[in-house]
Specification:
The complex is a heterodimer of chains A (110) and B (116). Chain A contains no helices and eleven strands. By secondary structure, chain A is mostly beta strands. The chains are: A mainly beta (110), B mainly beta (116). Chains A and B meet through strand 5 and strand 10 of A and strand 4, strand 5, strand 8 and strand 9 of B.
Chain lengths: 110, 116
């Protein structure tokens, strides 16, 4: 079983839709959590960190459920420019090696 | 400011040849990481350097892979006797000192390696 698992998608949604991605992680020692975005043939870029209390950045909301060991990302009012692969990433305290999920592909269409 | 840079951006080589990939981290970043990403796959950790500590080489797939970081800055990933399964995008990332309060990693644009 992979340490970080994501639904690969693709999620095909119309502009303006709300879409949610989930991710599960297997190592309970994981301490830091992130969502990265990767455009086709580009490097990953940090989208947002995920905090225990949940956090929001504009149209993006991230949630963490430690008990169930899953992380979610909600995108409201989807834009064409949101089309990308979204990578769920975890890091264990004192072990500064990011563990990446394989990514969830999002395609927003007009 | 300048981000992480990598060179070359593309490398095509023949099976059995050695290749060297270079990474220049963000100035002041003490940690440096190498990952690789095969087509349609997630990122696979290869090696991690933190300051003067011994590197974490746990992700290197075979002894054909090695990496150095000279002077705590530039790093070189070397693949000896390349095989076709080594074809991938090799990504380098760096992050600030741990005391900076963040472990965010910043990625370079990658080197796309094709082994014929």
């Amino acid at each position: 079983r992979k340490e970080v698992e994501q639904d690969p998608g693709p999620f095909n949604v119309p502009e303006g839709a709300t879409v949610a991605f989930n991710c599960t992680y297997s190592n309970s020692a994981s301490q830091s959590f992130f969502w990265y975005r990767q455009d086709c043939r580009k490097e990953p870029k940090l989208l947002m960190s995920v905090y225990s209390s949940g956090n929001e950045d504009g149209r993006f909301t991230a949630q963490l459920n430690r008990a169930s060991q899953y992380i979610s990302l909600l995108i409201r009012d989807s834009k064409l420019s949101d089309s990308a692969t979204y990578l769920c990433v975890v890091n264990r305290s004192g072990y500064n090696k990011l563990i990446f999920g394989a990514g969830t592909r999002l395609a927003v269409h007009p | 400011g300048a981000g992480v840079s990598q060179s070359p951006s593309n490398k095509v080589t023949e099976k059995g040849k050695d290749v060297e990939l270079r990474c220049d981290p963000i100035s002041g970043h003490t940690a440096l990481y190498w990952y690789r990403q095969s087509l349609g796959q997630g990122l696979e950790f290869l090696i991690y350097f933190q300051g003067n500590s011994a590197p974490d080489k746990s992700g290197l797939p075979s002894d054909r892979f090695s990496a150095e970081r000279t002077g705590g800055s530039v790093s070189t990933l070397t693949i000896q006797r390349t095989q076709q399964e080594d074809s991938a995008v090799y990504l380098c990332a760096s992050s600030p000192p741990l005391l900076a309060g963040t472990d965010t990693q910043y990625f370079g644009p990658g080197t796309r390696l094709t082994v014929l």
